[in-house]
Specification:
mainly beta, Immunoglobulin-like, six-stranded antiparallel beta sheet, four-stranded antiparallel beta sheet, glycogen binding, CBM21_dom_sf, protein phosphatase 1 binding
Protein backbone atom coordinates (compact mmCIF):
# COMPACT_ATOMS: atom_id res chain seq x y z
CA UNK A 1 0.00 0.00 0.00
CA UNK A 2 1.12 3.59 -0.59
CA UNK A 3 2.58 5.58 2.29
CA UNK A 4 0.29 7.76 4.35
CA UNK A 5 1.10 11.33 5.24
CA UNK A 6 0.96 11.84 8.98
CA UNK A 7 0.47 15.42 10.25
CA UNK A 8 2.93 16.62 12.87
CA UNK A 9 0.27 19.09 14.07
CA UNK A 10 -3.38 18.68 15.12
CA UNK A 11 -5.10 17.85 11.78
CA UNK A 12 -8.28 19.76 12.65
CA UNK A 13 -7.25 23.18 13.99
CA UNK A 14 -10.75 24.44 13.17
CA UNK A 15 -12.20 22.20 15.89
CA UNK A 16 -10.05 23.75 18.62
CA UNK A 17 -11.41 26.38 21.02
CA UNK A 18 -10.88 29.96 19.90
CA UNK A 19 -10.56 29.12 16.18
CA UNK A 20 -12.99 31.83 15.03
CA UNK A 21 -11.09 34.43 17.06
CA UNK A 22 -7.77 33.32 15.51
CA UNK A 23 -9.29 33.75 12.03
CA UNK A 24 -10.48 37.26 12.94
CA UNK A 25 -7.07 38.14 14.36
CA UNK A 26 -4.79 36.62 11.67
CA UNK A 27 -7.19 36.83 8.66
CA UNK A 28 -6.38 33.26 7.49
CA UNK A 29 -6.19 29.91 9.25
CA UNK A 30 -5.98 26.25 8.23
CA UNK A 31 -9.23 24.53 9.21
CA UNK A 32 -8.42 20.85 8.55
CA UNK A 33 -6.33 18.45 6.44
CA UNK A 34 -6.73 14.81 5.43
CA UNK A 35 -4.27 12.53 3.62
CA UNK A 36 -5.86 10.69 0.67
CA UNK A 37 -4.49 8.52 -2.14
CA UNK A 38 -4.72 11.54 -4.49
CA UNK A 39 -2.77 13.77 -2.13
CA UNK A 40 -3.42 16.07 0.78
CA UNK A 41 -6.91 17.59 0.95
CA UNK A 42 -7.81 20.42 3.27
CA UNK A 43 -9.81 23.55 4.00
CA UNK A 44 -8.84 27.08 4.90
CA UNK A 45 -10.95 29.74 6.59
CA UNK A 46 -10.38 33.41 5.74
CA UNK A 47 -11.84 36.63 7.08
CA UNK A 48 -14.16 38.11 4.45
CA UNK A 49 -12.40 41.46 3.88
CA UNK A 50 -13.45 41.99 0.25
CA UNK A 51 -15.37 40.25 -2.51
CA UNK A 52 -12.27 39.45 -4.60
CA UNK A 53 -9.76 37.26 -2.84
CA UNK A 54 -7.21 34.58 -3.68
CA UNK A 55 -6.16 31.71 -1.44
CA UNK A 56 -3.33 29.32 -2.28
CA UNK A 57 -1.15 26.72 -0.60
CA UNK A 58 2.62 26.77 -1.11
CA UNK A 59 4.33 23.46 -0.39
CA UNK A 60 7.66 21.67 -0.60
CA UNK A 61 8.94 18.12 -0.41
CA UNK A 62 12.63 19.05 -0.13
CA UNK A 63 12.91 21.57 2.71
CA UNK A 64 12.24 24.57 0.43
CA UNK A 65 15.02 23.83 -2.10
CA UNK A 66 12.05 24.06 -4.49
CA UNK A 67 8.34 24.54 -3.99
CA UNK A 68 5.01 24.52 -5.78
CA UNK A 69 1.81 26.44 -5.17
CA UNK A 70 -1.78 25.39 -5.81
CA UNK A 71 -4.85 27.62 -5.71
CA UNK A 72 -7.63 26.87 -3.25
CA UNK A 73 -11.23 26.93 -4.49
CA UNK A 74 -14.00 28.95 -2.87
CA UNK A 75 -16.65 26.78 -1.21
CA UNK A 76 -20.07 28.44 -1.66
CA UNK A 77 -21.67 26.26 1.02
CA UNK A 78 -19.21 27.63 3.56
CA UNK A 79 -19.70 28.93 7.09
CA UNK A 80 -22.94 30.76 7.75
CA UNK A 81 -21.33 33.29 10.09
CA UNK A 82 -21.15 36.00 7.38
CA UNK A 83 -17.67 36.97 8.57
CA UNK A 84 -15.56 34.21 7.01
CA UNK A 85 -15.27 32.21 3.80
CA UNK A 86 -14.01 28.66 3.31
CA UNK A 87 -11.61 27.55 0.57
CA UNK A 88 -10.69 23.94 -0.25
CA UNK A 89 -7.41 22.65 -1.65
CA UNK A 90 -5.80 19.46 -2.88
CA UNK A 91 -2.03 19.08 -3.00
CA UNK A 92 -1.64 16.51 -5.82
CA UNK A 93 1.06 14.21 -4.45
CA UNK A 94 1.95 11.09 -6.36
CA UNK A 95 3.20 7.91 -4.64
CA UNK A 96 6.82 9.04 -5.01
CA UNK A 97 6.09 12.40 -3.40
CA UNK A 98 4.10 10.88 -0.56
CA UNK A 99 7.02 8.57 0.21
CA UNK A 100 9.31 11.56 0.80
CA UNK A 101 10.48 12.13 4.35
CA UNK A 102 8.52 15.34 4.82
CA UNK A 103 5.96 17.67 3.32
CA UNK A 104 5.74 21.27 4.50
CA UNK A 105 3.19 23.88 3.54
CA UNK A 106 1.88 27.35 4.35
CA UNK A 107 -1.34 29.10 3.31
CA UNK A 108 -1.41 32.46 1.50
CA UNK A 109 -4.39 34.81 1.43
CA UNK A 110 -4.36 37.83 -0.91
CA UNK A 111 -7.12 40.40 -0.58
CA UNK A 112 -7.55 44.17 -1.11
CA UNK A 113 -3.88 44.69 -1.97
CA UNK A 114 -2.64 42.90 1.17
CA UNK A 115 -1.15 39.46 1.74
CA UNK A 116 -1.62 37.30 4.84
CA UNK A 117 0.04 33.97 5.65
CA UNK A 118 -0.76 31.07 7.94
CA UNK A 119 2.51 29.24 8.47
CA UNK A 120 1.62 27.54 11.76
CA UNK A 121 3.17 30.29 13.88
CA UNK A 122 6.44 30.20 11.90
CA UNK A 123 6.89 26.41 12.02
CA UNK A 124 5.03 25.61 8.76
CA UNK A 125 2.54 22.78 8.61
CA UNK A 126 4.63 19.60 8.44
CA UNK A 127 3.68 16.05 7.58
CA UNK A 128 5.87 12.97 7.34
CA UNK A 129 5.52 9.94 5.11
CA UNK A 130 4.61 6.78 6.98
CA UNK A 131 4.15 3.29 5.53
CA UNK A 132 0.68 1.86 6.17
CA UNK A 133 -0.96 -1.50 5.85
CA UNK A 134 0.66 -4.93 6.28
CA UNK A 135 4.22 -5.10 7.49
CA UNK A 136 6.89 -5.37 4.84
CA UNK A 137 8.22 -8.83 4.08
CA UNK A 138 10.99 -9.93 6.40
CA UNK A 139 9.79 -7.95 9.40
CA UNK A 140 8.74 -9.84 12.48
CA UNK A 141 5.05 -10.00 13.22
CA UNK A 142 3.42 -10.45 16.60
CA UNK A 143 2.90 -14.23 16.88
CA UNK A 144 -0.34 -13.63 18.81
CA UNK A 145 -1.82 -11.19 16.30
CA UNK A 146 -4.33 -13.79 15.09
CA UNK A 147 -4.92 -15.39 18.50
CA UNK A 148 -8.35 -15.64 20.09
CA UNK A 149 -8.92 -14.11 23.47
CA UNK A 150 -11.19 -16.10 25.74
CA UNK A 151 -12.92 -14.41 28.65
CA UNK A 152 -14.37 -16.49 31.47
Amino acid sequence: PPPLLEPLFPPQPGASPGFAERVRQHKVRLEWVRAEPAGLRGAVRVLNLAYEKAVSVRYTLNRWASCAEVPAAYQPAGPADGLTDRFAFLLPLGPAAAAEAALEFAVRYRVAGAEYWDNNEGANYRLRGRQRGPLAAGLLQDPDSNAWIHFI
